[in-house]
Amino acid sequence: MNNSTFTDDGLSAPVLTVTALNLAVARLLERSFPLAWIAGEISNFTRASSGHWYFTLKDDAAQVRAVMFRGRAQFCAFTPREGDKVEARASVTLYGARGDYQINVEALRRAGVGRLYEAFLHLKEKLTAQGLFNPARKRSIPMFAKTIGIVTSPQAAALRDILTALKRRAPHIHIVVYPTPVQGQQAPDQIVAAINNASRRAECDVLLVCRGGGSIEDLWSFNDEGVAHAIVACSMPVISGVGHETDFTIADFSADLRAATPTAAAEMAATPRADWLSSLRADATDLRRAMRRTLTEAMQSLDNQSRRLLSPAAQIGHQRLKLLALSTAMGHANRAPLSQARFTLDQLRARWLALRPDVTQLRVNLLALQRRNARSTAIQQVQRRDALTALTAQLELLNPQRTLERGYAIVTDARGAVVRAPAQLKARESITVQVAEGSADVAIATVQAVADQS
Question: What is the pLDDT of residue 451?
Answer without folding.
Answer: 59
